[in-house]
Structure formats: structure tokens, C-alpha cells
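Purpose: get a first structural picture of the assembly so the mutagenesis plan has something to point at.
Setup: two entries, given in the order below. No constraints added.
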Amino acid sequence: MKRTYLIVSLFFLTGFLACKKEVMETFAGFQRPTNFPEPAYHFATNKITKEGFELGRKLFYEVQLSANNTISCGSCHIQTAAFTHHGHALSHGIFDRMGTRNAPPIMNLAWNTSFMWDGGIVDLDLQSIAPITNHVEMDETMPNVLNKLRNSTVYPALFKKAWGSEEITSTGFLKALSQFMVMCVSSNSKYDSVMGNENGKVFTAEEQEGRVLVQQKCGACHTEPLFTDNRFRNNGLVPSSTNDEGRYLITQLDNDRYKFRVPSLRNLAYTAPYMHDGRLLTLDAVLDHYTSQVQATPNLDPLLQQGGIMGVQLTASERTKIKAFLNTLNDKSFLLDRRFAEQ
Amino acid sequence: MKKILIAVSAIALFVTSCKKDDTPEYNPNVKADLSVEFDNIAGSSDLQLNTGTYTNTAGESFKVTKLKYFVSNFKLTNVDGTVYTVPQAQSYFLVDESNSASHEALLSVPEGEYKTITFTLGVDSLRNTMDVSQRTGVLDVTGAAADMYWSWNSGYIFFKMDGTSPSSTAGGNVFQYHAGGFGGYSTPTVNNLKTITLDLTTRGTPKVKSGKDTNIHLMVDVLKVLGGTATMSFATTAMIHSPTGGVPLANNYASMISHDHTEN
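Result (C-alpha cells, whole complex):
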């Protein structure tokens, strides 16, 4: 009896999956999740097409973007880690040279108003140049990359499909990569289901209380629904031996020293370690930092020193509730979405 | 016979000078060629990449291995006071000492006689924040401008001078002086754009007329970049790679260019 049920279930499941696959094969383009605000990305100058997206995906996983053809974007932005370099505080690039910052997720970038931990890059279309040319990352030059693609047997045809001409242009290259990156939308967490009222999904009491706590104690910076305010803040980490001054390196304004972009709280389960230099290995360590280790470094965010108290006060039960809510922000489907995987 | 020759020459000279003194008929509705030549020098020597040895104001000897800079947004003021602004699309040039073809900015301007020339050293904020598809030619950040662009701090490098100096304590005794900074995208930051206006009346006003090439010959003195309002020392500063670091350099390069002569 049990076996019959199982077979029938499997039958239905297979049918369902097959259907789902067909749906996925029609390219829907960029779709704003209903609970997300208008994106910041300039779609007017980069219309998303199936061919453009697919070219971008191929480029994202293309090792020829690095000087010795060993490293692709996907080497440090791994889908199963929500496009971060899971387990790596810092990433090793070409020739195992070490970087100075933790690889940020390629996730919901269409809503980013700037890129990198210091916001030094202002347009996603210009972003890709930085890791490609960085000495410790891919250490290649853009003219070389474009020449490699020109000499390849596949790219001229792919550029023609995407842009109507076999010519390998900088615009075609950069905008295709942008198309892939903006398509990497993570919006299928439990939180999103609850917000979107899908299938009557609701938070547990613990998650709901956790949400209220996050709104009260973290929400000024980690603002819903993207869980970042896209601003730069110093959260009181003691500068490490590299003395990374963050946003200051870009603006060279004293009041930007030690500030970094506020990261999203989405997909935390897959993106450890945390902070700009990946120094905190677990979520508990992050909460420990905010509750008891915030240091009065220059430009410490005023929100972390209210009423003469450093950091955020949390009871043990509040921590548990916050963690329960943060768990609802994990979107496993984002990690498994075949559209974003190397083909 | 000799007397006749002298007489004829005198007459010819008189006629030509007369002709020259007369205001030619300019048609401001007709565009004509005007080239602006950027002749890179080091004090009283022509700049020779890699081989020439020069001495800065701080008394340090040095060689230049690379010299590149952007000039843009050209404007010319006619002797009658009208100002002609070269259209944006034709107003960006990257001067590269290693490529002689890049030493001349070829402009097309209305016929006329001009008393001043104005241009920007650098790339203005508008072009610095423009869509990549608009960044063509010398502004292509993956091509001609690939080494004149800070990828990590979105923006063009306006001026780049690399070289070696025994006074530099950096590896290989190199120095790298890179200046940029257009004023910031979302936060106001350092602006190293310099507007340079040169008087053309004392060294020869360009008389631009169709059918001929007029050339404004400018001298660009790298010694002035190293010793203008600020004295740059390779011993003290071998590397400049940021807008703030480039401020003294920019204040110096604001006055590195002078008008030498005009070929009409």
C-alpha cells in the first residue's frame, strides 16, 4: 500500500517537475519580485534578452577572463554558496594570491546603488573590469580578454546572437555580464513567501518575534525587504593588521574611514564567513560582536552607541528569535536554480 | 640684377604682409581644420621616453617611461569675443608620448581668428559617469583608456607619468604619478579636473580658414608638473594612485602648458 502511494506520488512529482521545466525554458527576462522596490539598475540601456543573459552566464564562468586562463568569476562567486566564496575569509585569486576582502554575493545586484565593500564602483556595467584587472584576482587586461574572445571559436557567434554582430565589443561584453548578474535574483525565501502571501505561509511565533526584533535592533541599516540600506557604516570592528579603511579609500573623506557597505541579511546560512574581511565565522560570532565587542573606532555608527551603550543589547531568548527569523531569509532555490549554473 | 631681386622681394614681402594684415574674409558658417599640438618637453629639452635624463626642482634626476593625459572640452574665443565650443563628441583626446599621432588634437572650428583657447585637463564628471556604450574611442575603458582608468574607484586617470629615479625608494627605483578624481559620484570628493585657458595673442593668433591647416603649438613641460606650486620629490613620494594624492600634481599640471607658436 505504502509503495503504491509512493509510486503515485513520484508519478505526480515527475509530471510536476516536467511542467516546471517547460515553464523555465521560456525566458521571462528580469522580473521584479512583488515585494521588492523598483530596481536601481538602468534596464533602459541594457534590455535583458535570453541571448544576452546566456552570453553573460558563459562569460561569468569563463576562465579566459584571467591572465593564465585558470580563474573565472564563478571561482570565487560559487552558486552553492549564494555566489560567495564559502569558507574563505579572503579569496585566493590567480597564482593563489590573497585578496584583502571577503567575496560578496552576486545576489539582487539590480537593487545595488554601488558595488564592492567600499562602493567604489558606481555602475554594474563597470564592475566586471575590477576583478578582471586586479593583480590578486584575475590579473588580466581588458584588451587581452577581448582579444582572447575574438580568437575563440564560440564567442563571435554568441555575441552575434546577443547583440546582432560578431564583433566583440567592450559594451557587449560588459552588458552581457550585467545581464547575468541582475538576473541573479534571490526572492524565494520563506520571508518572501510570507510577504507575498503565498499558499497561506506564515511565520512561526518565534520567527515573528524575531522579525520585530530585527526591525527594532537591526532594521535601520538592514532594511527590509533587501535587508540593506545600501549605505556605508562602521560597525565597530577593530581594524585588522591590513588596516583596511574601507569607504575612505574611495572618497578620502575622514568621516568615511572604516566604513563599509551594509551587506544584506539574505542567505546568511550559505555565505559564512561574515564581515568585509570574513573574520567572523558563525552567526553567533556576529551576534557576539554586536552585543559585546563593538569598539569605539573612528566614525563608529551612532546607532551602535546609543545612550552611552556600545552595540546592541540582546537577551539570550532574543538572540534565538533573531536567528529563527534570519533563517527565514535563506533561499535554497537560489542555490539550485539551473539558470544561474555553469552549463 | 641683384637690385631687381631685392626690389621684387621687397614688393612681394610688402604685398604678403599687406595681405596678412588685412583681415581675411572669414565665414563663421564654414568649419575649417585647427590642430592643437601637445609637444611634451622637460624644461628646455624635448622629452625622450626611457632615454632622456632630467632633473626636477627637488634636484633629483629621473627618466620618464610613460606619459599620458586626457585633454577635453575645447573652447575657442574669437577676437570678436564670440566663443565656439567644440561639440562634446569630438572633444576628447588622449595624448600619449609614445604615440606621435596622439600629440595633435584635430578640431573643426568656424573660420576666424582666435585669441584664447580653453580646455580641460582630464575627463569631466559627465563622461566619467556615462553609460559604457557611450565610452568609445579614447574613452573606451577596455581599450584605449584601459590603463587610464581606475576600475576599483570608477573614474578616469587624467594624468599619468611613470618613470624611474635613483631617489625613489620603491622597488626598481620607479615612480608612478597618477592623478584623477572628477569630484565624486554620490559623495563630493576631490576634483582634479583643471581648466586651462591660454592666451594666443602674444605668440601668434591662429587664423583659421578652410583650405589650410592651422596649428596651435603648445609646450607641455613635465618639469612644471614636478615643480610648480608644489615641489614633488621622488624620495618623499614615489607612488601617487589616488585623487587626494594627486592634488599637488593637479595643481602643478594646471600650469604645465604654454603656447609656443602658431603655424597659420
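Chain A touches chain B through 33 residues (CB under 8 Å).
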